[in-house]
Design a protein that fits this description.
Elements (H helix, E strand, L loop, with lengths): L1 E3 L2 H13 L4 E6 L5 H13 L2 E6 L19 H11 L3 E3 L3 H5 L16 H4 L3 H16 L3 E5 L3 H13 L5 E5 L19 H6 L1 H15 L5 H13 L4 E10 L13 E9 L2 E9 L1
Parallel strand pairs: 1-4, 2-3, 2-5, 3-4, 5-6
Antiparallel strand pairs: 7-8, 8-9
Helix pairs in contact: 6-7, 9-10
Length: 279
Amino acid sequence: MKIIKKIDELRPIIKSWKREGLTIGLVPTMGYLHEGHKSLIDRAVKENDRVVVSDFVNPTQFAPNEDFETYPRDLDADAALCEAAGADVIFNPEPDEMYRDALTFVDMNKITKVLCGKTRPIHFSGVCTVVSKLFNIVTPDRAYFGQKDAQQLCVIKKMVEDLNFDIEIVGCPIVRESDGLAKSSRNTYLSPEERKAALCLSRSLEIGRRMAESGETDAKAITDAVRNEISKEPLARIDYVELVDLTTLEPLETVKKPLLCAIAVYIGKTRLIDNFIME
């Protein structure tokens, strides 16, 4: 497995794979890889001849008051995980390699202004820009994204449709700890007390899921139940709890599939997201 930091070094490798008729899978990540990322890599390895994992903490999706500088990084551990999983290349550029003198950015309306977009207004422009660049650099046949970032997955699918990228977007299920907490690189920020408090996210979503599966049709009743459960935890501060259409991300008044129940909650200073989906 190779670790490549320059676009001009990666492109000849991609071209040689294309000449051989090999299929390419891309797993875009910000590094500090865990079992959730590994599940994406495992699927990409299974479904493609070659796999590229991007390992890049993207500065354009962080606001000035967010955690770009402190976001966890460990390239050695990432490389060990990728090699064990069977990836062929880690693409690990520096910010200047990706954005030197850049004047062009990719933005989107409507579905980027809701949920996480309400409090992170520049976030999805950064996501769309870096993913577009990765698509153009790697030219993959398939790209793999986790469903924990459900809004991101929805945004990427729409961008691919709108900009006519010839790429299949594959959404992969959330991977959780044994106690239900969704795997996240930001879990490392949590103190032991906060780690225990964070279980209110998965616990509240399970209440909402059971209500929906049992035939509850009032969307507000479900979101109220989720809010109430989270509010029992003193260390939790709710950013949002919403039940929306899975494709348009428009709020639902009546429960109907496909739906997304998405939450963002601060545990201490750490903002965590989680969700459940009903197709």
